[in-house]
Structure formats: C-alpha cells, structure tokens
Amino acid sequence: MGITQILFWFLSALALFSAVMVIASRNPVYSVLWLIVVFFAISGHYLLLNAQFLAIVNIIVYAGAIMVLFLFVIMLMNLHKSSEPKRNKWLNIAGVLAGGCLLLVLVAALKSAETKSSMAVMGTGDIGLIENLGKALFTDYVIPFEISSVLFLSAMVGAVVLGKKESSFRSEKESA
Amino acid sequence: MQNVLQIVWLIPFLPLIGFLINGLFRKQLSKSLIAIIACTTVLASFVLSIWVFLQVKGGNSHVAEYFNLISAGSLKVPFAFQIDALSSLFLLIITGIGFIIHVYSTSYMKEETREHYGRYFSYLNLFVFSMLLLVMGANYVIMYLGWEGVALCSYLLIGYWFKNTEFSKAANKAFIMNRIGDLAFLLALFWIFSKTGSLNFDVVFSKGPLLDSSDITIITLLLFFGATAKSAQIPLYTWLPDAMAGPTPVSALIHAATMVNAGIYMITRSEALYSLAPVTQNVVAITGLATAILAATIALKQNDIKKVLAYSTVSQLGYIFLALGLGAYTAGIFHVMTHAFFKALLFLAAGSVIHAMGGEQDIRKMGGLKGKLKITYITFVVGCLAISGIPPFSGFFSKDAILLSAFEHNKVLYVLALFGALLTAYYMFRLLFLTFNGSFRGTQEQKDHLHEGPATMTLSLIVLAILSFAGGFIGIPEVFATGGDKLSEFLSPVVPVFREGAVSHSTEIILMVLTAVLVIVVIVMAWLRFRKYQQVEEKGIGKFLENKWYVDELYDNVIVNPLSRFGDFLKNVFDRSVVDGLVNGVGRLVNYGSRQIRLLQSGQVTGYVLLMVLSMLLIFVVQFFLRK
Amino acid sequence: MPVNYYIFLSLALFAIGIVGVLVRRNAIVFFMCIEIMLNAVNLLLVAFSKMHHANQAAGLANVGIDGQLFVFFIMVVAAAEVSVGLAIIVMLFRNVHSVNVNFLNRLKH
Predict the structure, then answer these.
(1) For residue A99, is pLDDT > 60?
(2) Residues in contact with B41: Cβ distance below 8 Å, sequence separation at least 6, in sequence order
(3) What residues of C are in contact with residue B613 (Cβ under 8 Å)?
(4) Are B88 and B171 members of one domain?
(5) What DSSP character marks residue B304?
(6) Interatomic CA distance for residues B39 and B32, integer angstroms
(7) B609 interface with C at CB cutoff 8 Å
(8) Contact: A127, C62; criterion CB under 8 Å
(9) Interface A-B: count of C-beta contacts within 8 A
C-alpha cells in the first residue's frame, strides 16, 4: 500500500468522521470548525487527484470565505448550545432511518455499476492545473463564467437588501 | 262528406278557444262575458255536431287526417278524427248536455268571484275539449290524449274549491285512481303497437283477427282495466262518490253524463277486439253486474243527496258494462244516452235543491220541499221515473234492452240485473220522498231561504226532463213498432246489432210487464216506508251498507297505508341514513381527507425535507429495483 | 484508486448531509449540511473527470476538464447561495429571535 492509498483512506476517514461531527455537535461553532476539517480533507482528495486549482479554491473560498461568514453570523447572533432548537426524538429517528435507507439503496444500486474496472488516475494528468482550466474557462466556458459574475452581483445585492434594517417592513408587520 | 272534413276540427277547437280566452283573461273579463264565451263556444260545437250527425246518418264514415302527430321509425300517428255514427252520437251527448250544464252553471256559480268564475268556466271548456278529442280521435293516441285531459280536468274541477283539504284529497283520489287505469290503458297501447305495428283504429281492427287469442285477451283486459278507472267500475270506482266534492254541475257533467262514458266509448270503439275475446267479455259482464248491485246496495243507505246519485251512477254504469260484456253494444250505448239525460237532470235538480238549502246536502235535514221547489220537484220525479224504468220514460227502453239481452244470455244474470233494477227504484224513490215529502227538517233560517233557482236553472231542468221522458223513443223495441229501433239502425254501420228475435215477442212482453209491475211495487214500498221520516240508528247490515261495504277502509288498509308506511320508511330511514349518509359521508370523507392532507402542508421545513427524501427513496427503489 | 471508492465515499458524505438536514433544526447547521452534500458531489465530479481523462487519454488532452469546471461553477453557486441564505437567516433571527427552520412557517401569517 503506497503513500497515496494511505492518504486516501486517511482523508476519507477524516472527511466522514468530521462530517458526522458537524451534524452531531450541539454547538454550531463546533459544527463550523468540523466542517472546515471536512473541507480540508476534501481538498486533500483533490490534491491526490492532481486537481490543484480546485483544492486551492476549495480552501480559499469554502474554508476561508464561506466558513468565516458562517462563524461571523453565528457570533453575531450569539448562538451557542443553549440556543439550539429542541428536537423531536421520533422525527430524528425517522430522519436517520430515511437517510440510512437512501444510502443503502444508492449503494445497492451503484454496487453493480459498470465502473468497477475504471480507475480515477491519481498523481498524474494535467487537466486540473490552472493553466489548462484557465484556457478552457476563458474559451469554451466564457459565457457561463461571465454569467456567474452576474449571479454574484445579484447575490450580493440580494444579501444587502435582505440584511438591511427594513424599518418600513417591520413597522408594517408589527402594526399588523 | 268532403265539406264535413273541412270544419270538423272546429268541434273540439271551439271549446279550446273558449278555454284559452277564459283562462288567460279571467281577471279582465266580466262575469257575463265569461259566461257568454263559455256557453257560445259549446253551443257552436253542438250545432256543428248536429250538422255532422246529419251527414253521417246514412251510414257514412270518414277519417279526417290533418297532420302527423308523431312520426318516429315505424310509429306513425296522424292527428286524425274519426267521423261516424258512434262518434257523432257521443258528440251530440257531450256538447248537448255540456251546453245545458254550462247554462245551468252560469247561475249556479254566480256567487263566485270573477276570477274563480273564469277559472271554473275555462276548466269546463277544457273538459269539453278533452272529451271531444277522446271521442273524435281516429287512433288510440288521440284518444289517450283526450283520456288524460279528461282526468286532468276532473282533477281540477273536483278540487275547484281547493282551499278545502277534504276536497283536494278527493281530487287527488280521483286523479290517482285514474292514473292506475291510465297505466293499464297505456300498456294496452304498447301491446297493440308491438303486435299490429299501428295504433290507428282501422288498421288495428282489421288486423285484430290475425292476432293470438292470448294477445287479444290481454289487450282487451288491459283496456277494460283502464275503462274501470274512468267509468268507475270495481275495483276503481271509489273515486266517483268522493268526486262529489266538486260543484254540483261538475258532478252532473263529468260524473254522470260524459267523463264516465269514456271507458264505455273506448270499449265500444274497440268492439272489433272485444268480440274476439270471449273471456274478457265475460269479465266485463260480471264486473259490470257486480258493480251495479254493489253500488245499488250502498246507495240504499247513503244520506248525502249527491252521494246517492253518485252511487246510482256507478250502478247504472255497471248496467252499461253488463250490456257491453254481453255484446249488446247498442243497448249499452242507448243506456249511456238515456242515462246521460236523466242523470244530468237528477244532478242538476239536486244542485237546485242544494242551492235552495244554502249548501246543505244531507237529506235527513230536508223534506217537504215539493211545495217550495215545484219545478225541481217535478223534474226530479221525471228523472226518478226514468231511472227506475217506468214506461214510457226513457230509462224503461234502455234498461229493458239490457235486461232482455241478459235474459237471452243467462237467466241468472237476468235475475240479478232485475234485482239491481228494483234496488235502483227503491233508493231513488227513498231519495225523492225524503227530500221532497214529509215535513221540513232543516233550520228556520233555511226554511225562509227556500226558493226556486233562476230561469237558466229551471229551464235547463225542463229541457233535460223532456229529454229524459222522450229520449227513449228513438230505440223502441221491435215488439211495439216495426222499425222503431232507430238507434240500432243508426249505429249499425259501426257496431253489430244485437241478435234480435232470439226471444219470442210474447216472452219479451211478459218480461217487460213483470219488470214494470215489480218496480211499481217497490216504489209503493218505498212510499210506505219513507213517506214520513223516522230517525233510525243503522245497525248490522244497514251500517255495513252505510259505510259502503268498508271498501274505502279496505283500500286504505291494504294499499294506501302500507304504501304510505313504505314511503315513511323511505323518507325517515332510507333517505336519512342511506341517501343522506352517502351524500354526507362523501362530504365528510373529503373534509376529513383534506384535513389530514393539510397537515402535510405544515410549513415545517423538516417535514418537507423528510417527504422529499422519502420520495427520492421511492423513486430510486422503483427505478433501480422494481423496473427490471 | 478504483472510482467505486470515490462513489461510495461521496454517497456516504451525501447521506450524512441528508441526515443532518433531517435531524437538525438550526438553520445555520442546515446550510452546513447542504455544503457537505455539495462537496460530496464535487468530489465525485472530480473523480469522474479523472476517470474519463484516464480512459480517453489517446490524443485528447482536455477530456474530463468539463467535470472540474462544473465543480468550479458549483462553488460559485454555493458561494452565492450561502451569502443570500445567511442574509435570510439573519432576517429570520431578527424577526423570531431563533434560528429554528420550522419557525419559517410563520411566513404564513
């Protein structure tokens, strides 16, 4: 078992464990921290698959920006263990069962898929390099790329509008 | 003959116009105008009828076809009128008696308000129209139209004073009983059509001999059952006495002179079928005789002047059916005619009495009226003599013809029929003596009020009295004058003449004398018994008769009450629990279901996600595992 | 590594994300679970892209690059979604003083 395999198993175990910890933690702050671990583990997978660009972007965008945003919001609202909403035990059991069943069904379905012999090439291949991706992105995918910038703009505007203190809306609602 | 056709449709059409005018404008027209319109239209029809009568006298017969009433597949029903001796005779009776009764009504009903006055006369006109349609129709469908129209008018007129619940109930009873008969008639029509493919008289009668005897028997029995309702025979006669709820002229018109003859006319018209069904003929004869005697016994003990006359009508109709059953159609028609005269007379005279008594109908509270109501008394006596069969009044000839045919047919029938005739004489003279003889038993107020009716009433009575006296002379038996039986001769193109001469003339005379003597004896008995009124409590058989053999109660208990209990069951149990339960159940189910489904739309995001996951699960399971 | 391993890893992560969505009420954790699911899909996309690249390497240098670009776009959309979503959560908190997603049903009123 080479170093790649060892890393694969390690990172997979880390990702799964951290993901479980994300949903198991009472405190949302811990959840966020565990989620960052998940992202790092997945970035590690990307690196193993020689997709350096995505690995870096994943860390910068997700683990960096988005997670900071999460933490920021959590702290803004001063959420902690005691503010965690109460749960319904039976609904939880039902949720776990439903998720488990889904997993079971999908695994059972894909177990016999014709990908058994296929290998995901590790360590080699240069499609994941910035150079190649950049070329493809700015030639074949230039329109989606530009549209995504518009999407960002609208998301930004939307976030600002939503987050603004809407005095008119609130007073209206309170009077109603 | 051709010109007859051109105007013959006017005969029923004129009363229809009268009906429309009086019915639609009854609020605008004045009473005298209403009366004039109503009487004139019927009078015009009467004049036309006389004219038609003269046209067909030589044995002419014609079918006047106007347009296709129904044309559907093989069923073609033309709107056509049958003009022959039989229908023209009935036309005369209907329009003639109808006219007299219209005139009589103008005074009898004059205390009604204008609106109701118009209503009354429009109904009368409609009735005459329906009856004319019935008689003139050249096929069973037209006849059926008239048949139903007559039932409707009788309902309307019996329930004329509709604010009185009892009267409305009597109207309902008449209508429902008639419906029972109508159903049988309708079934007969279906049967006829399915067997012969037509409903026109000429086709049906010409194909009659080709049919199975069982078919003929069933058809004729169904027709006869239909006739029992209209002509008040056992078992559907009970509506007629109750129909006395209507105004008295209506009783005279409908329940004595015309409507009840519908069944008789129908059977006579279908004579070609009946002569092929001996079984039915026996049924008709026996039913007729049984009705005659049953009704006569009931009439013996009735105290309502109109009820007595009603039962006597039923009884006389029984005689006519006896004649029809024996094949003596001419005798039957003869009696129809004379009966129309004297029964209309008796009813109108009774109406005059009731009018004078201020609405009192109980003969126990009358008596001694002959001083005050001279004309009424005399005409009533004429009517009684005629109905009892005293020679030479009209009833004598017609009843004698029936008795004679019964004698030729079967001696037992003759004896029973004679017994019935004697009963007739007895109850009629009981009625006469109780009403007009003895001392007055009403209140002082009524006594002061007693007066003869106006001229229109008395004139009507006099005309009818003359007809009742002389009406018999058109059918004088062979034994008195050769060729004296004008009626048979007149009708011979349509109905077969009863086999004359089967009984020797001497026997015939002996029988006539015997009948006359017995009737006179009975009248004397009645005189001795009822000359002075005695209050007696009826008991035993008298009570049984006074209560009309408890037939009404029997019908109530056997048919009406179970039906109404069944209706109650349907209404209270079946409808409430089953039908309502079903309807409300569907509503409740939808309500319940939507309430349950509403819970899914909780707004709880978790719930939605759970459902989404479960659906995904389902889709995957179906997609991956079940589809293979 | 056989691509099957990546498939099962992704499925496992995805299922964990779903279970998280089902059992947690906290809107923020809700979003985190969604991120987990998105990442599971991303991982799978990258694995498939490498698989295709290996299978069809003959002469075609860029086979499989689409998969990685899709991951890129998914990240873009996820970032936008998170920014708007967190804004919504802040609003929800401001209005009902809770981050329980089931309070979103108060939108009905």
Answers:
(1) yes
(2) B14, B15, B17, B18, B125
(3) 18, 22
(4) no
(5) B
(6) 10
(7) yes
(8) yes
(9) 25
R_g (Cα) of chain B, nearest Å: 30
HSE-CB for A173 with a 13 A CA cutoff: 12
- The pLDDT of residue B497 is 65
Phi then psi for residue A157, to 5 deg, are -60, -45
Q: Which residue of A has its CA nearest to C9?
A: A12
**pLDDT tens figures, A109-152:** 887 776 666 777 776 777 778 888 888 889 889 999 999 999 99
Residues B187 and B118 in one domain: no
Closest listed residue to residue B298, CA positions, set B313, B311, B289, B287: B311
Q: Residue B235 CB: number of other CB atoms within 10 A?
A: 15
**Contact between B457 and B380 (Cβ < 8 Å):** no
CA distance B472 to B391: 9
Question: pTM to 2 decimals?
Answer: 0.67
Is pLDDT of A169 > 80?
no
Report chain B's terminal Cα–Cα distance, integer Å: 91
Instruction: Look up residue B234 and give its DSSP letter.
Output: T
How close does chain C come to B596, measured CA to CA in Å? Answer: 18
CATH class (in words) of the domain with range C3-108: mainly alpha
What CA–CA distance (Å, rounded) separates B503 from C15?
117
Helices B85-108 & B261-269, crossing angle to 10 degrees? 170
Question: What is the residue type of B138?
Answer: A
| Residue C29 DSSP SS3 | helix
User: What number of other Cβ atoms are within 10 A of residue B204's Cβ?
Assistant: 23
Q: What integer best gives the mean pLDDT of chain C? A: 85
Expressed as residue numbers, the domain containing B572 is 555-626
Reported as a pLDDT band with limits 50, 70 and 90, residue C11 is very high
Q: Do the Cβ atoms of C101 and B602 come within 8 Å?
A: no
Distance of CA B350 to the CA centre of its chain: 19
**Would the pLDDT of A176 be above 50?**
no
Among residues B18, B232, B245, which one has the least CA distance to residue B127? B18
For residues B575 and B555, give the distance between their C-alpha atoms in angstroms, rounded to a whole number.
27
* Distance set, CA B417 to CA B11, B236, B387, B472, B546 (Å): 37, 21, 14, 20, 22
B602: helix, coil or strand? coil
Q: Which residue type does B186 have? A: L
Residue numbers in chain B where pLDDT is lower than 50: none
Using the 3D structure, point to which of B513, B546, B579 is the last residue of a domain: B546
CA gap B591, B586 in Å, rounded: 8
Structure tokens at A78: 């001063």
Asked whether the predicted pLDDT for residue A76 surpasses 80, the reply is yes
H or E segment to which residue B238 belongs: none
Burial of B300 (C-beta count, 10 Å sphere; 0-12/13-18/19+): middle
The CATH number of A3-140 is 1.20.120.1200
Taking alpha carbons only, the member of B417, B454, B366, B460 closest to residue B101 is B460
Contacts of C22 in chain B (CB under 8 A): 606, 609-610, 613
Residue B531's φ and ψ, nearest 5 degrees, are -55, -45
Structure tokens at B204: 């049906």
Domains in chain B: how many in total?
A: 3
Q: Are B108 and B95 in contact (CB under 8 A)?
A: no
Q: Which residue has the tokens 């049988």?
A: B184
Q: Considering only CA atoms, which of B470, B319, B322 is closest in space to residue B385?
A: B470
- The tens digit of pLDDT for each residue in B250-276 reads 888 877 778 888 899 999 988 888 888
User: Where do the domains of chain C lie?
Assistant: 3-108
